[in-house]
Amino acid sequence: MNKVFKVGLIGCGHIAETYFRGHQYFNNFKIVACADINQKAADRCAKLYNIKSTSVRSLLKDKEIEVILNLTIPQAHYSVSKKVLNAGKHVYSEKPLATQFQKGKELVNLAKRKKLYIGNAPDTFLGGGGQKARELIDSDLIGEIKLGNAIFAFPGVESFHPTPESWYRKQGGPVIDMGPYFFSTLVNLLGPAKQVQGRTLTAFKRRIYGAGPKKGKTFKVEVPTTYLATVQFHNGAIIQITISFDVINHQRNHMELYGTKGSIIVPDPNMFGGSVYISVTEGGRWGEHKTDKMQLGKINITSLSGRSNESPTNANYRSVGMSEMLYAIEKGKKHRCNGELSLHVLDIIESTMKAAITGTPQKIKTTCDKPKKFTEQEIKKLMN
Length: 384
Ligand SMILES: NC(=O)c1ccc[n+]([C@@H]2O[C@H](COP(=O)([O-])OP(=O)(O)OC[C@H]3O[C@@H](n4cnc5c(N)ncnc54)[C@H](O)[C@@H]3O)[C@@H](O)[C@H]2O)c1
Description:
Elements: E1 5-10, H1 16-25, E2 29-35, H2 39-49, E3 52-53, H3 56-61, E4 67-70, H4 74-86, E5 90-93, H5 101-114, E6 118-120, H6 128-138, E7 145-153, H7 174-190, E8 193-201, E9 206-208, E10 218-220, E11 226-233, E12 238-244, E13 255-259, E14 263-266, E15 276-279, E16 287-289, E17 301-302, E18 313-314, H8 320-331, H9 339-358, E19 362-363, H10 376-382
Parallel strand pairs: 1-2, 1-4, 2-3, 4-5, 5-6, 7-12
Antiparallel strand pairs: 7-13, 8-11, 8-19, 9-10, 11-12, 13-14, 14-15, 15-16, 17-18
Helix pairs in contact: 4-5, 5-9, 7-9
Bound molecules: nicotinamide-adenine-dinucleotide.
Residues 10-15, 36-38, 41, 56, 71-74, 76, 79-80, 94-95 line the site of nicotinamide-adenine-dinucleotide (NAD).
C-alpha cells in the first residue's frame, strides 16, 4: 500500500476537473482542500468535490498538507510555487514551470536548497504513446534518428474562448502554450537539446472575438502567432517544428522522426494514447503499434476539438506525473517530471522565442537526463 498524500490545490479553473478525475486512476493522493485568488471559484470547486475551500495563506499553513498542486495561470506559476516552497511544502505545477527561464531556475534552486520536490507538467510523455515510441526507438528498429518534424497548428482560441487576450500578449503566444508538450516529448525520445534557430510571423494584427459578450468586436495581437524553428539535439538530430495559431486546418502528423534504418510517427504529444507507426522500407507499409491496452493508453475521453489531425477519442491521465512524484518522495528517489527536465524545456521555449524573434541562433544553456522509461510494472503500483 502506498502512502496517500494529502494535496492542497491552488487555482480552481478549467483543468482542475481533470486532476480530480485522477483520483479514479491513482492510489497515492487525495486533494483535500482548495484555494484561489477568486474566492467564488474556490468555493464552487470545494462544493463540487466535497472538500474544504480556504485562502491561499491558510492552505500554506495547513500542517496536514504536504504537497500543493499549482493549477493557476502560467503567469502566476512562479509566484505561487515560490510561496509553496517557502512554506516548506512540495509543489507540482501545471506547465510551464514559469514564463521566464531565470524565474524557473530560481524555483529549481530554491527546491534544492529546501530539500523539497518540484514537479511539473506535462506528464503526457509518460503515457502509452510516448512510452511506446521510446521503447521502439530504444530497440533500434529505425536506427539513429537524424532528422524529423513536428507541428501544432490551429486558428487560435478566440472562436470559443470569451477572454482570449492573454494568448496574444507578452508572456503568451503559441510556444509558451504548446511548446512544453512537444519539447518534453522530444527530450524523452532524443535527449537534451543543444541549439535552436527560427523565424516568426503574425498573420493577423487584430483578431475577432468569436464568443462571449464581445463577440464580433476585435482585439490587438501583441506577440508573434507563428514560430518556425529548427532544434538541434546533443545526439545530432535536427528537428523542424511549427507552432502556430495562424492555421485554419491541416492534416499533418503531429511528429515524424527519421532514422538511419526507418521512420516513426509519434502520436499527439498533448495526449497520452494513440498508435505509433513505423516503416523501414521506401514506400513500404506502416506497421501499427497500438497503445490502447497499455495502462496509460486506454481510451477514457472523447476529444471536442474536431481538428483534422486529432483523434475523436483518446487517453488522458493527467496527474500521473504528480502521482509518480509522490511515489518518488516516499521512496527517496528522483521523479520523472522533475525540475531539471522542466527547466531544460523552459530553456528550449525561451531560446526558441528569442532565436525566432531576433533571427540569431541561440545555444541552449541547460541540459538534463533523458527521463527513465516508465514501465507497465511501475505504473501498476500507482494505479487503483
Ligand atoms: N484548460 C486546459 O485544457 C489545460 C490543459 C492542460 C494544461 N493547462 C494548464 O493549466 C493551467 C490552468 O489552466 P486553466 O485552463 O485551468 O486556467 P483557468 O484560467 O481556467 O484557471 C486558473 C485559475 O487560477 C486562479 N489564479 C490565477 N492566479 C492566481 C494566483 N496568483 N493565486 C491563486 N489563484 C490564482 C484563477 O483565478 C483561476 O481560477 C495553465 O497553466 C494551463 O497552461 C490547461
